[in-house]
Amino acid sequence: YKSIIKITITVKVGTNVQTKTIYV
Question: Distance from first CA to last CA of the chain, Å, rounded?
């Protein structure tokens, strides 16, 4: 399954960097 749209969200909280990749 390959997604047509790739959304990458980077959230930086303090010293924590969270990268979330959502395929919709």
Answer: 11
